[in-house]
Design brief:
This protein is an alpha/beta fold. It has twelve helices and six strands. The strands form two sheets. It has a four-stranded parallel beta sheet. A two-stranded antiparallel sheet has the order 2-3. The radius of gyration is 19 Å and the shape is globular.
Length: 296
């Protein structure tokens, strides 16, 4: 049943700190259900630190091409999980505005195992190995070299029902209701990531408040917050996160992530490396179409 989305209650802020037009205009890339929420979040950022958003416009930052709010293409009503990473990749080709999705990666596989692009993207490589261990396709003590060869060979030939590209992995995550967000939406080489993330905390508070209020209005549990790394874990200190279920892990850059049992339990049942059946894809498209019509 559709529930009318209530107005999100952002933290009390002043109203005399304008959001630069060039930043405010980027909200248009988001799904319409997010527009007012993101605008409130930006106002919160501007009031907490009037120089922060203008500072983004003084020097190049990532992601480029107007993708600062690309994660919010996922409709609010579809969100079941909020995956929070630390910040955008520090490379223009990789930073997409979507957490964990490295734009420099195309194919996931090679006949010898994982593709060169995946092997260079350490976090993605460890995430995929964690999924393969969870599915029983890799032994937790043998996750590289020859152990991956048969898996990669079968995936390349299409004989094992595995997805082949990062775009398909992102689609699978979206179908399971993931909002792929970063604690810091921007990256600048001269700004420490933890300070960058601090500037975005009022924005995240607005996002969390809206998700909590939507869930309450719909009579359902809030989305699960999946927090990767120390910077993302600071989201747990925000008062708006109090009522959310949480799954907290080390950053996937760490080898220990492969054996993280909480992550295995969370992601294993989703079968993210499997090609979605036509029925599930059609159902997802139909649901997305219904959600889009309801939130307009």
């Amino acid at each position: 049943m559709w529930c009318q989305l209530p107005k999100a209650e952002s933290p009390p802020v002043a109203t005399d700190s304008p959001v630069p037009d060039a930043i405010a205009a980027l909200v248009r890339v988001a799904h319409p259900s997010w527009h007012a929420i993101l605008a409130r979040g930006l106002q919160g950022v501007a009031d907490a630190d009037p120089g922060y958003l203008p500072g983004l416009l003084k020097a190049p930052y990532l992601p480029t091409a107007g993708r600062l709010f690309a994660a919010f293409a996922q409709p609010l009503a579809a969100v079941r999980y909020v995956l929070v990473g630390e910040g955008p990749y520090p490379r223009a080709a990789s930073a997409t505005g979507v957490c964990f999705m490295d734009g420099a990666v195309g194919s996931l596989w090679a006949p010898t195992g994982l593709s060169k692009q995946v092997n260079r993207a350490t976090s993605l490589r460890n995430f995929m190995k964690m999924l393969l261990v969870t599915e029983g396709r890799l032994h937790p003590e043998r996750t590289s070299g020859d152990a991956l060869m048969s898996i990669g060979s079968a995936a390349v030939t299409g004989s094992c029902g595995s997805i082949g590209s990062l775009a398909q992995l992102q689609d699978n995550l979206l179908r399971h209701g993931f909002l792929l967000l970063n604690a810091a939406l921007a990256f600048r080489p001269d700004v420490p990531p933890i300070r960058e993330a601090r500037g975005w905390q009022p924005f995240l508070r607005s996002v969390l408040a809206a998700l909590a209020q939507y869930a309450e209005a719909a009579g359902q549990a809030p989305p699960t917050l999946v927090l990767w790394g120390k910077i993302a874990a600071q989201v747990d200190t925000l008062p708006e996160s109090a009522g959310f279920p949480k799954a907290v892990a080390e950053h996937p850059y760490n080898l220990s992530f492969i054996g993280n049992q909480e992550m295995q339990a969370l992601f294993g049942p989703m079968h993210l490396l499997a090609v979605a059946s036509p029925a599930s894809v059609a159902g997802a498209v139909q649901a997305a179409s219904m959600i889009n019509s309801l939130v307009k």
